[in-house]
Each structure stands twice: as C-alpha cells, then as structure tokens.
Write a structure and sequence with these properties.
two-stranded antiparallel ribbon, 10 helices, Arc Repressor Mutant, subunit A, 6 strands, mainly alpha, about 260 residues
C-alpha cells in the first residue's frame, strides 16, 4: 500500500531531504493583509506582540481592539495582551492617544501603523517646500520619558494622562533619566504614596512630584590617585665604606661623596 503521509518531510527533486522551511505559496486574491518583514522578523518584539500587530492590521477600520475585547478572542490573558500592546507602542506600531469630547469625557483612539511610527514621522517631517520663516518645529521629546509617563496608568488608573499632558511633562521626566535614575525607580517614586481620594488633576500632581522630588545629579567620580613610583634600586657604594644605598645609578653613598669631592 502506498498511503500518503502529509506530515512526512518533503523531498527535493534530487531525492534528498531538504533542510529548513520550504514555502508553498498560493496567490491571495481577497481576504488578506500585507505585512512587512520589518514586523514579521522584528528582532526585539516578542512573538505575542508580532502576532497581535498582524491581527490588528487585518481588522477593518473601526473594529474594537480593547484589552478585554482581545482577551475574549484569544487564550492569552489581559496581562499578556496589555504587555504586547505596550511593546507595539514602544516600537512605533501602535499609538493610543486620548481625546476629549465636547461632553468632557475622554476617549481612546487606536492608531495602527503598518510601518514603524518613527519611519512615518520621519517621512512626514521632510518638507516638500521651504517652511515659513517664522515657524519653528517643536523640540523632539525623549521617547523613553514619554513612554514612562504613559505607562503610569498601568500602576494606578487615576494617573491616566492625555497625550498633551505627556508632551508637557516629558522634559521634567527626562531630567530624572539624565541624572541616572532608572525608569523603574522614576515610576515607583511617582506612583507610590498616592492620596486615597480621587485624583482630579493627575498631570498637576505629577508635575509637582517631578519638580519637588527631583534627586541631585550624581557627583563626578574622584580621580584615582597616581600610582606611587618604584623605589630606586640598591647600589653598592664605590667608596671604602662598603655600604649599600638606594640610588638610580651606581656611585658613592651620601657619606662618601664629600670625601670624594675633597680629594
């Protein structure tokens, strides 16, 4: 009998087993999404984040991609999904700015980038013509400080900041990082010992803490003391005393030198 075994390794035309993956590609004509290798083969993203990015990019515009919605679709829990979303934000594939409605309520927009946001912003920053003389681009904030401030809401939901608040507080948070304070220590300092009452103005609270709790800069390291020079070698006195003394070169000892000079 010659039963087919679909799980058996494929053989090359030469009859030998091939190594590595072999692609059996069929053209897609509908119901597909184009994904760049910069995402599919990203060296720093986890497989969870890569798969989540592909899923989000495959959804139609307007689809809900909240953490609870995604957790209801996949076996991974809310914690892993939230961590994967943060990965995509850090590497520029996702943005979740907060916008205030006319009613005063805040809503979250979800922006999915099929190319890293840094590349999109860089392309958008290249002007097609000369800019107006009186218009100057705003200073570029530190990406690490901005991510740090945005992550505060994962420690306490009351520390939810708008995108404008994050941009305004980024220089103050950047000052902490420039003084050698680890990001985890900054988060812990800002999010600890919070009041038990509702926080109406989290941006004002954080601005106060960033200013008042700013640690001093580390002192410059003291220079190492110069290594002590090696002592002169021992020399045998060329006089009649027979003494041994230290000197860089052979000769007479201190007591025999005056007698030698007088002679």
């Amino acid at each position: 009998m010659t039963d087919q075994q679909p799980s058996a390794p494929a053989r090359a035309k030469s009859g030998r087993f091939t190594r590595g993956v072999e692609h059996v590609n069929e053209p897609h004509t509908d119901n597909f999404v184009v994904v760049g290798n910069h995402l599919a083969q990203h060296p720093e993203l986890s497989l969870m984040a890569i798969g989540l990015a592909v899923h989000i990019q495959s959804l139609p515009a307007g689809a809900s991609v909240g953490i609870k919605v995604l957790a209801g679709k996949f076996p991974e829990g809310e914690i892993r999904i939230a961590a994967a979303l943060r990965e995509l934000e850090e590497h520029g594939y996702l943005a979740r700015p907060k916008e205030r409605l006319h009613s005063g309520r805040y809503v979250t927009r979800t922006l999915s980038y099929n190319k890293p946001r840094s590349a999109v912003l860089q392309a958008a920053a290249e002007p097609e013509s000369e800019p107006e003389p009186h218009v100057s681009p705003p200073p570029k904030p530190s990406a690490a400080a901005a991510n740090l401030l945005a992550e505060l809401r994962t420690y306490d939901s009351r520390l939810l900041l708008t995108e404008r608040d994050v941009q305004r507080l980024t220089p103050a948070a950047d000052a902490w990082l420039e003084r050698g304070v680890p990001a985890s220590a900054v988060l812990r300092t800002l999010a600890s010992d919070l009041p038990t009452v509702p926080i109406k103005h989290p941006a004002a609270l954080l601005a106060h803490r960033l200013k008042e709790l700013l640690p001093p800069a580390l002192p410059a390291p003291e220079p190492l003391p110069a290594p002590a020079g090696r002592p002169d070698p021992w020399q045998d006195c060329d006089g009649d005393c027979g003494r041994v003394f230290r000197a860089p070169e052979p000769g007479r000892c201190r007591d025999c030198r005056p007698a030698s000079a007088a002679a």
